[in-house]
Amino acid sequence: MTAVAAHAGGGLADHIHPEPQGFIRKYVFSIDHKIIGIQYMITAFLFMILGGMLAELIRVQLMKASGGLMTPETYNEVYSVHGSTMVWLVIIPLLTGGFGNLIFPVQIGARDVAFPWLNMLSFWLFPPAGLMLYASFLMGAPTAGWTEYPPMSLNAYGAHDGTSMWAAAIFLIGVSSTMTGINFLVTILKMRAPGMTFTRMPLFVWGQFVTAPLLMIATTALGAALAALFVQRQFGVAFFDPTRGGSPLLWQHMFWFYSHPAVYIMILPAFGMISEILPTFSRKPIFGYKMIAFSSCAIAILGFMVWAHHMFTSGLAPALQLPFMVLTMLIAIPTGVKIFSWVTTLWGGVIHMTTAMLFAIGFLATFTLGGITGVFLAAVPFDLHAHGTYFIVAHLHYVLVGGSLMGILAGLFYWYPKMSGRLMNEKLGKWAFWLFFIGFNGTFLPMHWLGMWGQPRRVAVYDPQFQAWNQVASWFSFVMTAALILVLFNALWSMRNGKRSGPNPWNARTLEWQIPSPMPYYNFKHVPSVFAAPYDFAEPLPYRGLEEELT
Amino acid sequence: MPENRDPVVHLDRQFWIVTAVLGVLALISIFWWVWAPITSIMPEAVDKAQQIDALFRFLAASGTALFIFICGYILYFSLAFRRHAGTPENAVGIQIHDNNKLEFWWTLAPTVFVVIMAIFSLRIWYGIEVAPSNTLVVEAIGHQWYYTFRYPNVNGEVKEMHLPLGQAVTLHVTSSDVIHSFWIPAMRLKADMVPGLINTFEFTPTRQGRYEIICTEFCGLNHGLMHSGTTVNPAYVYIDPPARYASWYARTEREQIHASNAIEAASTSELKLNGGEPRDGAKLFAAKCSACHAAGPFDQKIVGPGLRGVLDDPAHPNLVDGDKATPENVAKILQNGFKGSMGQMPNQAANGLSNKDIVNLVAYLKTLK
Amino acid sequence: MAVASVTHGAYAGVMSEEPDQLYVETRELRIQGFLLFMVSDLVLFSSFIFAYLYLRNSGQGWPAGGPKLDIALAAVNSIVLFGSGATMHFALENWKHRNFTKFANWIVMTIILGAGFLSGQVLEYIHIGARWSSGIFGASFYTLTGMHGLHVFAGIIYLTVLLLQAAQGKYTFTKYTGLTLGTLYWHFVDVIWVVLFSIFYLL
Questions:
Q1: Where are the domains of chain B?
Q2: Distance linking the first and last C-alpha atoms of chain C
Q3: Which of A514, A547, B35, C86 could serve as a FRET partner for A416 with CA atoms 20 to 30 Å apart?
Q4: Coil vs helix vs strand at B88
């Protein structure tokens, strides 16, 4: 636990740590939350390229019912690492470490997070962990999916040595996430600018605020599960091996106690982003601010009580299935409220159809579908049919790609100026959106009926009667990949060639837009005071003390 | 926060026309789902399947209707309120923050929906979990990568599953190695097969025919082959009229007794253990034994011990069953299997080894020094 | 850490300056962060406690007639550990009352008691004689008590470092956040032991 180095007098709000000099201190081992945020993003996008390549290997393999590109063994490695990469090395780091670090401290009027050194440490655990995960290919990568259910993840049953490496890598990521969670939570609780009450916080901050405890609590539980799997594998400690008295179901409990909240770690910050982008480009206050904020809290709390809905077919005691089913269904209520509020925000607006807005609206449509199928799956009798099939693959990609990733892309187009001082190219961006939207739906929509008809997930070969629809999915996945390449190209190209944005190209009202782009080292020359929520587009800005920021 | 008075909202005629159109579309989709030809793609083979399909129709109909409304409004608002070329740069939308009445109704609506869905699901769930009396108890066992079944009064495990039409069935599922899953799409039912645990469900077959069994829990290299499509061990359940079932049952009962007698006879009769072909044995070892046994030293355990020097290891003169480590006693274990604390060594009925295979394997094991 | 300008001397902590605004706010942040760290650490223990209860109730191979635990030894050991909690409390109180010598004595006492607890645990491990890899009892008992033992061990090192830092004048009698955190940590380890003792020896 470290705190800021002492330099100037006065309280923390006036406290400025000196700007470091030299490339290494400034850009590599930086303690500036903005640089760390960008570091997270660059690293995560690099891993997204790797994970995306694995995804395309999967889709090429499934072009033919008999497979043919890879042996089943390689195929199992590929989809396991694909899933682990996308969850732990792409979506979570982008939403928390990346956009979280970059934006929310500015939005609450702080000059940095509470523990900048800890923040740097969090980041620097992340690339090594990612490399460890990929290094597991050298010793035989994990094969039992991102969930690594024992006994399949034990060598006696055909797992590879790299599974231990996988556990260690994800454990490291978990430590990093836990520290990020503690850091963010303390920052939001203690370092808000004067007048920034909870009901005046931008909704992206709310997203981070409810995500932080999930990171802190759930990720530690995952750490315990991974440690247990590691010692089971390396030292024969009988936690999960059924032949030694252990219980394979214990892993499922421990794993899902983390991984269901993790689903909300991956979506709540995206909810926050959407809640910033929709009002900004509709020139309207967000509809039902309090309901959106409180429903996030409700989702986070309920999220801890529903993990066993992943285990309806596993042999859960019937008396336990009922409460888990009902609690899971309850989540539909706050989620529904959010969606209705967002749609209503569009009504009566003056909608600027920028790329960021297109992605945000695309998010609404696809996430709604993912949410609806999620409610279906909460019903035990329905789940008994759909569990473990491509229906699940479709559902989870609709919420993680159609939800989280769409939110991330919207956020990238929206906040890019705050990183670079330039805008991303809108024309390329709109092309990318439409290709992405069409490619995404074409890839994952058919998987709904493939699953219902009987295609199990995690198969290297499948029943030939499903081949046609699998080919459709594969062809559309190439379109989606092209769109993502276009986005990354756009981001690289715009760094030098994008139009200069000025401090506030979108006419947005949260604090990060009231300071120059890219944001200066101290964020604010004077810490502002706040006297209203940020979304009243017809009113003057609700801040005092910002007069000198742009001079 | 300063008092922002929300303006009075007027919904124009256009809005109501769009709403009406969406309503019609939603109704059409509801009707479509109510009469959707689900059974022409997937027959309903058991009583529970009809109930689950009813739930499915309800979910799909209400889900689609909801989706049509939400996406319809998104599309309509995006187009109708799009900023036009002439709109001044600083134009703002309608400054409205809240509407308590609206928010009350749209919180209540999903709540009601969830309550209906929960009650609907509970009733079906109750039917799946609670057993009627006088059921036929069948046990299904998952293996890497095939299924076997046990019937009351039938020796050993059989490779086909037959069920009599109209007879209530209690199905216990478990596994001999890793977690598998037992899913019959035509029944809409599934349970994981977990080693060391027995999962149970109840149903009554209502439609004659042959239906596919599919494994949906990742279970290793050939997970994708664990269904009917494979030529190795196609997995089906046969729902037969009672008479045909009875004759199948009687025949199976006889055959299984015969098979176990044959194994008994083989094990008592001396196998000619000389003249085995070690090279064939090596292939068999890689294919059938190496999942559990290494060819390395004793301490190199996978499930069972490493087998190098099994026939000539002063530190371990006895086999797991306590007999002396001779080729004859190794062959006996290969025939009869052994259930010990570490796990189960399958017997000849389960491991599918012929007597000649056993001779070859023993010849190979002799070469491991 | 608002480092005082004092850098040398046997113990220069006597030189007290009035806490400024920055110190007060930083202290608050650090204590809050530390409390949250303890919450997540608690989750780690809770997960393994859940695993233990789960395995004990549904796994196979729990030792017949219960494991061979020495409840008398464990009780004595518990008293030693709780005693160390009390001595740690006295140490911090003496610091607040500006008495370095007594502070140092009490903290040394704490370290000795902590080491005594660890030795007691080693005796208990020898007495039980099971192995980590022998069945579900070994898995849950050694993992949980081992994790706790590591926490105690880390705590001993932590307190030693704090003592040395205090002797070098890193803390003043008005600015001593590090010592507060050390005390919190030590009490946390005590509380965890109460839970572990109850579930293994009393349940």
A1: 13-81+98-129, 136-265, 278-367
A2: 44
A3: A547
A4: coil
- In total, chain C counts a number of residues equal to 203
Tens digit of each residue's pLDDT (9 = 90 or more) over B63-82? 999 999 999 999 999 999 99
- Tokens (6 digits) for A136: 């597991």
SS3 content of chain B, % helix, strand, coil (to 5): 45, 15, 40
Q: Domain span at residue A156?
A: 35-544
C-alpha to C-alpha distance for A533 and A135, rounded to whole angstroms: 48
CATH code at A419? 1.20.210.10
User: Do the chains contact at A289 and B97, CB–CB below 8 Å?
Assistant: yes
Which one of C3, C40, C59 has the shortest CB-CB distance to A182?
C40
The tens digit of pLDDT for each residue in B184-193 reads: 999 999 999 9
| Residue B318: Cβ-neighbour burial (10 angstroms; 0-12, 13-18, 19+) | exposed
Question: How far is Cα A109 from Cα A191, in angstroms, rounded to an integer?
Answer: 8
**Count of beta carbons in the 10 Å neighbourhood of residue C10:** 9
And the tokens for B256? 């299984």
Query: Does pTM top 0.95 for this prediction?
Result: no
Three-class secondary structure of residue A436 per DSSP: helix
Q: Read off the DSSP letter of residue A455.
A: -
Q: How many domains does chain C have?
A: 1
Residue A6 C-alpha, separation from nearest chain C C-alpha, in angstroms = 5
CATH class of the region B136-265: mainly beta
Q: Does the CB of A529 have a partner CB in chain C at under 8 Å?
A: no
Closest CA of chain B from A83, distance in Å: 14
Identify which of A315, A361, A461 has the shortest CB distance to residue B78: A361
Here the ipTM equals: 0.92
Q: Which two tokens stand for residue C43?
A: 């989750």
Chain A interface includes C157 (CB < 8 A): no
Q: Is there a shared CATH topology between the B136-265 domain and the B278-367 domain? A: no
Q: Are the Cβ atoms of B55 and A381 closer than 8 angstroms?
A: yes
| Residue A401 and residue A440 in contact, taking contact as beta carbons nearer than 8 Å | yes
Domain range for C60 is 21-202
Give exposure, B68-100, as e/b (b: 16+ Cβ within 10 Å): bbbbbbbebbbebbebeeeeeeeebbbbbbbee
What CATH code would you report for B278-367?
Answer: 1.10.760.10
